[in-house]
Amino acid sequence: MKITSDAEVSDINKARLLLKSVTQTNPKHPHGWIAAARLEEVAGKPQVAQQLIRRGCEECPKSEDVWLEACRLASHTDAKAVIARGVKTIPNSVKLWMQAAKLEQDDVNKSRVLRKGLEHIPDSVRLWKAVVELANEEDARLLLQRAVECCPLHVELWLALARLETYENAKKVLNRAREKLSKEPAIWITAAKLEEANGNTAMVGKIIERGIRALQREGLEIDREMWMKEAEAAERAGSVATCQAIIHNTIEVGVEEEDRKRTWVADAEECKKRGSIETARAIYAHALTVFLTKKSIWLKAAQLEKSHGTRESLDALLRKAVTYIPHAEVLWLMGAKEKWLAGDVPAARAILQEAYAAIPNSEEIWLAAFKLEFENHEPERARMLLAKARERGGTERVWMKSAIVERELGNTTEERRLLDEGLKLFPSFFKLWLMLGQLEERLGNLEKAKETYELGLKHCPNCIPLWLSLAHLEEKVNGLSKARAVLTMARKKNPQNPELWLAAVRAESRHGYKKEADILMAKALQECPTSGVLWAVSIEMAPRPQQKTKSRDAYKKCGDDPHVLTAVGKIFWHDRKVDKARSWFNRAVTLAPDIGDFWALYYKFELQHGTEETQKDVLNRCVVAEPKHGEKWQAISKAVENSHQPTEFILKKVVVAMGKEENAAENGKI
C-alpha cells in the first residue's frame, strides 16, 4: 500500500501508538502482535513487521496464529526455519505441520514432513488424508491400514481403504468398519456397491435390507431424504442396483398410507428434473408393485421411458401395463404409436388387434387403427375399419373420418352420401356441415354450398367456422355488402367474438376500405379488449411510427399473448434488431407450440437472419411440437394434396405462402 497523504500518515501513527500500547500492556495477547506486524507491513516496513512478529513468537510461543503469521511474513528461505521452530514449540499443531508441508517443493519432502507430524499427532485425520493423497496406490493402502488403527471412528478413512483393497480384503475392511462404526450407513452402502461392482447383484438388495435393520437396532432413525440422496449418489457413481435397492427399502419410510401415491410420484418427478433417471425409474417400479392398477402411475413411468429409456424398455413397460389394466385405452394407443413411429406397422397393427379384443367397443382404438392404415397408404383397410365402426354405432367422428377417406380418394358421390347420412344422425355436429359445404364449393355448386352453410347455422348458430365460411362464400359470389350482412348477423348472435370482428376488418381491407376497417377495429377492441389476435392485427394495420405505441398498449392489455409477442417480434425484425426479434418469436412458440403460423414466421425469420444451426433447431422443435392450428397452417395442412405430408413439409410450404402474401401486399402498396 502506498501512503499518499498526511492524513494517512497520521492514521498510521495513531494505529501504531494504539497497538504499541496493546502489546506492552498485554504482551501475551497474540492478536495484538499480529495486528502490529500487519500495520507495519501495510506501512511498507517489512523488516519492522518481521521484528515485531518475532517478539510475538517469543511472548506467545504456544499460539499457532503467531507462528503462521511469522511464516507468512518471513522470506522464502527463512520461512522453513520459522515453521521448524513453530512445530518444535507446538508439536501437536496440525495447522503448523500442514504449513510446513506446504513450504516443501516436491512430494517426497512434503510426505516426509507430514509423516513426521503424524508421529506427534497420530489421530489427525487431516494429516492422514494429506499424506495419503501424496502416496502411490500401494503406499496409500499401507498408510490407510495404519490410519484406520489410529482414527478408527472416521468413516472416510475406512471407505478409502476398502476402495484400494482387493474384493476379499475390502469385505474384511468393511466388516471391521461396521464393528467400530455401527451407526454409519455409508459402510453398508459401500458394501452393496462393492458386491455390485463384482457382479453379485443378488447380494445388493440383501445387504441394504440387513443394513437398515441393523441401523434401526442401533437406535438410528432412518432419514428418508438422506437415503434418497444416497440413491442418487449411487446412480451417479454407476451403481444402479444399489440405487434400486436403497429406493426399494427406504421409499415407504415415514409416508402415510393415503399419501403414498402422491408422494412417490412427486419424488420421481423431482429426481427426473435433477437428471437422476434410474432413481426415478426405481421409484416408479416400486410404486407399481403397490399400485398395480393405477393408470396414472403407469403413464408417468411410460413417459419417463419414452423420454429417457429405449424403445424396448418402453414396449416392455406398456406390455406389462396392459396385462394389469387391459381397459386403459391410452396405454394400448401409446404402445401402438411407439411401434408405428419405430416403423414397425405390423407390430402396431397387432397391438391394436389385441386392444380390440380387450376393449371391443372403444371408438378411440377403432380410430387409431383407421389412422394407422390411412397414414400408411392403405385406404381399403381404413375404409373397412370405418365401415365396421359405423355398423357398431360409431359417433360423429367416425362419420367425419369416413368422409375424409372418400374425399382423399376423390369419390365425391360416396363422400356426399356419408355426409348426408352422418348429418341425419348428428345434425348438431358442425364439422359435417362444413365438409358438405366445402364439397359443394369444390364442385362449383355455390348455391348448394350456401344452402348447406345456412342449414348448418340453423342447427349450430354458435359455430364460428360456419359463419366465416358463409361470409367468405357470399363475398366471392355476391360481393362485400352481402358478406357484411352475414358477419353483422353473426356478431349479433355471437357477441364478443374476436374471430368474427377480425373477418369483418379483413373483408373491408381486402376491398380497399381502410377507413371502415379502422373503425371496425376500434369497435372490435372496445368489445374484446383482451383479444391478442385483434391487437396483433391492429399493430400491423397502424402506420409505422404508431406501431410501437400500439404494441405497448397491446402488451399492457394482453400480457404474454403469443399473437402480441409475434407482432412485436415482427416490429423488431423490421427494425433489424435480430436478437430481440428472435427472443420474442421464441417466447411465442414456447407459449403456443400448437399454432403452426408462429413456427412458420420464426423459421422464416431464421432463414433470413439465422445460422444453419438456428434454422435446424427451429425446424426440429417444430417437428417435435407437431402443430395442428393456425389460420395459414390449417389452410395448407388440410388441403387434400397435402394430407399425409410431414410437419417439415407443411412448415416450409407455409413459409413460401407467407412470402408470396408479403410480396403481393408490397406490390399492392406500390
From TrEMBL:
<dbReference type="GO" id="GO:0000244">
    <property type="term" value="P:spliceosomal tri-snRNP complex assembly"/>
</dbReference>
<dbReference type="Pfam" id="PF14559">
    <property type="entry name" value="TPR_19"/>
</dbReference>
<dbReference type="GO" id="GO:0071013">
    <property type="term" value="C:catalytic step 2 spliceosome"/>
</dbReference>
<keyword id="KW-0802">TPR repeat</keyword>
<dbReference type="InterPro" id="IPR019734">
    <property type="entry name" value="TPR_rpt"/>
</dbReference>
<dbReference type="InterPro" id="IPR008847">
    <property type="entry name" value="Suf"/>
</dbReference>
<dbReference type="InterPro" id="IPR045075">
    <property type="entry name" value="Syf1-like"/>
</dbReference>
<feature type="repeat" description="TPR">
    <location>
        <begin position="430"/>
        <end position="463"/>
    </location>
</feature>
<dbReference type="InterPro" id="IPR003107">
    <property type="entry name" value="HAT"/>
</dbReference>
<dbReference type="Pfam" id="PF13428">
    <property type="entry name" value="TPR_14"/>
</dbReference>
<dbReference type="GO" id="GO:0080188">
    <property type="term" value="P:gene silencing by siRNA-directed DNA methylation"/>
</dbReference>
<dbReference type="GO" id="GO:0046540">
    <property type="term" value="C:U4/U6 x U5 tri-snRNP complex"/>
</dbReference>
<keyword id="KW-0677">Repeat</keyword>
<keyword id="KW-0539">Nucleus</keyword>
<dbReference type="Pfam" id="PF05843">
    <property type="entry name" value="Suf"/>
</dbReference>
<feature type="repeat" description="TPR">
    <location>
        <begin position="562"/>
        <end position="595"/>
    </location>
</feature>
<dbReference type="GO" id="GO:2000636">
    <property type="term" value="P:positive regulation of primary miRNA processing"/>
</dbReference>
<protein>
    <submittedName>
        <fullName>HAT repeat protein</fullName>
    </submittedName>
</protein>
<feature type="domain" description="Suppressor of forked">
    <location>
        <begin position="65"/>
        <end position="218"/>
    </location>
</feature>
<dbReference type="InterPro" id="IPR011990">
    <property type="entry name" value="TPR-like_helical_dom_sf"/>
</dbReference>
